[in-house]
Every structure is written in structure tokens, then in C-alpha cells.
Write a structure and sequence with these properties.
Chains A, B: This is Metalloregulator ArsR/SmtB family transcription factor. The structure is a homodimer. By secondary structure, chain A is mainly α. Chain A has a single domain, classed as Arc Repressor Mutant, subunit A, CATH 1.10.10. Helices cover 55% and strands 10% of the residues of chain A.
DNA sequence: ATACTATGTCGTATTTTAACGTCATAGGGA
DNA sequence: TCCCTATGACGTTAAAATACGACATAGTAT
């Protein structure tokens, strides 16, 4: 990928893209949904419910953790992964604003300026 | 990337991940915002407003077009790119449901089962 | 008809993801 | 103590994304 020119975009665009990238894999979407559905959540359980190797799941967990979307607390031999709901609410708001602006735009058609 | 095991996830998870991937680059976020802000929209103008080469922008346009998030109609020497607002509204709904479920989950803390 | 302009296509080098196997570490129980 | 188990770290391979230059094409205007 590389994102060499990333610096030239606005902070909002970069932040939205970062989160979107975090959700850009079905495994990570599934992980978030899984954590949302369970109040208690152990790393091993997550790997067991996904069709991926344990280490691959761990890699996805690390990516989500890098963005602080999820948190992991070591509890003896197991680790409790949890959603960062506070951050998720902020992110939700960002996506909401983005889609509001995008869908508010007049669809291309006979009434549009370009007419296409 | 590869997504070899993609088939093992639900259609919803795959669809969400696909759209998220489309928005996983600041250039594509910027493109959608640009198209939303203008009622008329030409390919060349888009490249001019982004810090990327024309061909790179074209590539991003193609990716958005592959998901049908945007449409392009040839009009003589120029091309009118437009948002597919109908599809965007559907996508917005999917993201909304996803975030609703994620943020509704009780944050990890003293009241949670895991206690972390 | 010719030159100019604006778009699209191709090829490619570099970087990043994805997926997994193997090894390391550390807590708990026999 | 010794072993088992569960997690994390490392290394590697294959596939995909990113970015761009060079070329092709087609419409417009002089």
C-alpha cells in the first residue's frame, strides 16, 4: 500500500480511512460483532469461532488494538478482550457525518447540473 | 491481502468489509466528499484537487466504481462522475446497524462479567 | 486535416496485508 | 518440581494495494 501521500489529506479524512481500514476485513468485522455479543470475552474463544488460525486472529486483534478500538486485559492465564465503546461512539459519529453529507448530495439525474 | 478464507464469513460481514475497504484510503474518502460537494463533477477536476497523479486518482475512481458507489457517464470529451446516493443510503444503514450493535454492548468495566 | 486536450489503459516497482507454522513465555495443576 | 495450557512474538510466503510514467484513444477547435 504505502500511503506515501497520506499527509496531504485532512485529519478527518485520514482518521475515517484508518477506521475504515480496520473494518476492511470480514474477520475484524466478525471480531467486533463477537465482542459486542458477549459480555465476557477470552482470546482463545475468539479464534475458536473464526475460520482462521489462532495466530492470524491474534494479528487481527493487534490491528484493532493498535487503533484502540478494542482493549485487552491480562487476567492470569487468559486475556479479556473488550470493545472500547467510548471510542466506537466517536467513530460512529464520524461515519454518520460522512454518510449524511454523501447521501444529502443530489443524485445525478435529470435535475442535476450535469444532467447525467 | 488475499482474503482466502473470505467465504467462511457471513454475507453481511463481507459486504461491510468490502465497503469499508473502499473507504480505507483517504484519497477515496476525499473523492466521495468532493463528489458530494459538487453537483457537477469531472474526472480531471478531481485529480487537480488531490495530491496524487492523475492515473492514481483514476485507479481510486475505478475501485469506487467497481462497488457501484459512484457512476461515470461519458459526455463527449469529459466524464461526469456522480455518487450513487441510493446505494450510499443502503450502506449507511448497514454501518448504522453495525455501530448500534457495537456501541450498545456494555463497556468493559466493574459492572461487566469479566470485570476488566 | 492537424494539433491540442482530456480521458482511459498498460506495465511495473514498492509497500502492505493476510495467513500460517514455529518458537518463546508464563500461569496453574498433578 | 514438572508438565500442560494459553497467550504472545517472530519469521516467511503469497497476494493485493498504492503510486506513477509511458502509451493509446477519442473529441474539439483552428
Amino acid at each position: 500500500m504505502s500511503f506515501a501521500k497520506t499527509a496531504a489529506f485532512t485529519a478527518e479524512q485520514q482518521q475515517l480511512a484508518r477506521v475504515a481500514k480496520a473494518l476492511a476485513h470480514p474477520a475484524r468485522v466478525a471480531i467486533v460483532q463477537l465482542l459486542a455479543s458477549k459480555t465476557t470475552c477470552i482470546s482463545g474463544d475468539i479464534a475458536a469461532e473464526l475460520p482462521l488460525a489462532r495466530t492470524t486472529v491474534f494479528q487481527h486483534l493487534q490491528e484493532l488494538k493498535a487503533l484502540d478500538l478494542i482493549r485487552g486485559e491480562i487476567d492470569g492465564l487468559t486475556v479479556c478482550y473488550c470493545l472500547n465503546t467510548a471510542l466506537l461512539r466517536q467513530v460512529q459519529q464520524q461515519f454518520l457525518s460522512f454518510f449524511e453529507a454523501a447521501t444529502a448530495s443530489p443524485a445525478c439525474g435529470p435535475e442535476a447540473a450535469c444532467g447525467c
